[in-house]
């Protein structure tokens, strides 16, 4: 499963259907609703809120889980401006391929987020920031291992994890369970204000200091 940019054909490889993601997520949602979990990419406003922990200086290692069609990838790449490393881990090969061609500056890996510790170990890295676009279901069912402890263990000492939630699902049992799990796994969990300019409106959980 572990294909990277080079295996996808590199930056000059043939186009694919990714583009900026207008219809690709809808198509993938119809194929696999639980794993895709959305019919449209996140907004720029939500992406900007997600990337706030990325420092403006230095060489941070940023891991992106579930990049989809690249709504967060674009803003991460802009914020890094060629600094550090950006590893984007996408389970769906029909999304990972086009993404790798669109963002040659990011290392797109076709893999399960549960493989994160191995992916980082292979590269001799730990993550300074993990930015997750994953649906709740991925945190529970991925390869039968709970994902949050793996994410926490992958972070460097001052590492930060961000995750978004749609406001309308926030009080549903899976979302409440996830927030509880976040608070069990991290010493500090901060919730952003509602990002109204996203369809549907969403908020960002920012977690730091794994217990
Ligand atoms: C809700 S979409 C988010 C896409 C994009 N980040 C955005 O906000 O527009 C979730 C993405 O996570 C991917 N995904 C689901 N489970 C995954 C897993 N276990 N490992 C890696 N990616 C996964 C899906 O294929 C999909 O691209």
Order of strands in the sheet with the most strands?
A: 3-2-1-4-5-7-6
Shape: globular
> What's the count of strands?
7
Sheet having the most strands: 7 strands, mixed
CATH superfamily: Vaccinia Virus protein VP39
What is the element string, with H for helices and E for strands? Answer: HHHHEHEHEHEHHEHEE
Description:
With 211 residues, the protein is of the alpha/beta class. It has a single domain (39-210), classed as Vaccinia Virus protein VP39 (Rossmann fold). Helices cover 37% and strands 23% of the residues. It has helices at residues 5-8, 24-31, 33-36, 44-50, 71-80, 93-102, 116-123, 136-141, 147-154, 173-185, and strands spanning 61-65, 85-90, 107-110, 127-132, 155-166, 186-191, 202-210. It has a 7-stranded mixed sheet, sandwiched between helices. Helix 6 links the parallel strand 2 and strand 3 (107-110). S-adenosylmethionine (SAM) binds at residues 35-38, 41-42, 65-68, 71-72, 89-92, 95, 112-113, 133-135, 138, 142.
List the helices and strands and how they pair.
Layout: H1 5-8, H2 24-31, H3 33-36, H4 44-50, E1 61-65, H5 71-80, E2 85-90, H6 93-102, E3 107-110, H7 116-123, E4 127-132, H8 136-141, H9 147-154, E5 155-166, H10 173-185, E6 186-191, E7 202-210
Parallel strand pairs: 1-2, 1-4, 2-3, 4-5
Antiparallel strand pairs: 5-7, 6-7
S-adenosylmethionine is lined by residues 35-38, 41-42, 65-68, 71-72, 89-92, 95, 112-113, 133-135, 138, 142.
């Amino acid at each position: 499963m572990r294909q990277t940019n080079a295996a996808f054909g590199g930056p000059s490889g043939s186009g694919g259907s990714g583009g900026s993601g207008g219809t690709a997520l809808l198509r993938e949602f119809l194929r696999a609703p639980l794993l895709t979990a959305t019919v449209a990419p996140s907004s720029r406003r939500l992406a900007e809120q997600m990337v706030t922990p990325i420092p403006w200086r230095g060489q941070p290692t940023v891991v992106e889980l579930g990049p989809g069609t690249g709504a967060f990838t674009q803003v991460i790449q802009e914020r890094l401006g060629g600094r550090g490393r950006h590893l984007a881990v996408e389970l769906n090969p029909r999304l990972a391929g086009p993404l790798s061609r669109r963002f040659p500056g990011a290392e797109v890996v076709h893999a399960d987020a549960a493989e994160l510790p191995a992916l980082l170990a292979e590269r001799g890295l730990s993550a300074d920031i993990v930015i997750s676009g994953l649906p709740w279901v991925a945190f529970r069912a991925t390869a039968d291992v709970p994902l949050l402890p793996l994410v926490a263990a992958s972070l460097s000492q001052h590492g930060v994890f961000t995750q978004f939630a749609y406001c309308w699902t926030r009080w549903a049992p899976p979302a409440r369970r996830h927030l509880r799990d976040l608070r069990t796994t991290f010493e500090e969990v901060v919730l952003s204000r509602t990002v109204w300019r996203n369809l549907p409106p969403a908020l960002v959980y920012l977690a730091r200091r794994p217990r």
